[in-house]
Amino acid sequence: MADFLLVHGSCHGAWCWRDLIPALETRGHSVRAIDMPSHGSDPTSIDQVTLDSCRNAVLAASRSDTIIVGHSWGGYPISAAAELRPDAMRGLIFLSAYVPENGLSMVEMRRKSPRQTIVDAVEKSTDGLSYTVKPDSVKALFYHDCPEEVLLYALARLCPQAIAPQETRLTLTAHFQDMPKAYIRTLDDHTIPPEYQHIMSLSMPEGMRHSIQSSHSPFFSHPEKLADLLDDIAQGFDTLD
């Protein structure tokens, strides 16, 4: 069975994997979820958050047999981790996530999307260091197919997102390019357009490209189906040995 490390996206925390963790454990996998710097229970102040510190949080929780799942912005710190220490993981799974292009920041990647979906939904802090999602935009952006209970649960936990790490460019070499990778597209996504996810997924082998009929948050809307997909991908990684 696989060892999964779950890495959340913007404004979220380890709490967002609440329903997926037991689904994966039921299938016999070991699962851990971490808070990125300044998220959840992590005490880092917003002004101290960097792409490197996010990368280091991933590496601190990973081991050589770990499959790392990155959601949304989480695609960047997991890629940075693979670039620095490819020996510290088994493979990467991008869940409706940004797949970095060499020399580009996440913000630059977002601007390459054929559609811009979040500009009117977020609000920058007065000091310019972070942004939050406007409460009245949260459901449509992240959870439109989720139970109402999920929306209330998330609204109580969403936090500011540091801007600096998302504006940091990432240099990639064969360390990242040679890492086993898979992509899961979310086909009813209001955050990262599904057609852009398709474009980003093309950097991976056809057999490692998957999809789920879901919003941006399949860990809440379809945790059992997502667990099945992750289980299948883990088995696919095993065939690469």
Would you summarize the structure shown here?
With 241 residues, this protein is of the alpha/beta class.
Q: What does this entry look like structurally?
A:
With 241 residues, the chain is α/β, with parallel strands linked by helices. The chain has a single domain (3-238), classed as Rossmann fold (3-Layer(aba) Sandwich). 33% of the residues lie in helices and 17% in strands. It has helices spanning 20-26, 51-61, 75-84, 106-111, 138-143, 148-155, 174-177, 194-201, 218-221, 223-238; strands at residues 3-7, 30-34, 66-71, 91-95, 122-124, 130-133, 161-162, 181-186, 209-212. The strands form two sheets. Strands 2-1-3-4-8-9 form a six-stranded parallel sheet, sandwiched between helices. Strand 8 (181-186), helix 8 (194-201) and strand 9 form a beta-alpha-beta unit. Helix 2 (51-61) crosses helix 3 (75-84). It is globular. The model has no long low-confidence stretch (mean pLDDT 97). InterPro entries: AB_hydrolase_1 (IPR000073), AB_hydrolase_fold (IPR029058), Sec-Metab_Biosynth_Hydrolase (IPR052897). Pfam families: Abhydrolase_6. This is Pimeloyl-ACP methyl ester carboxylesterase. It comes from Ruegeria faecimaris.
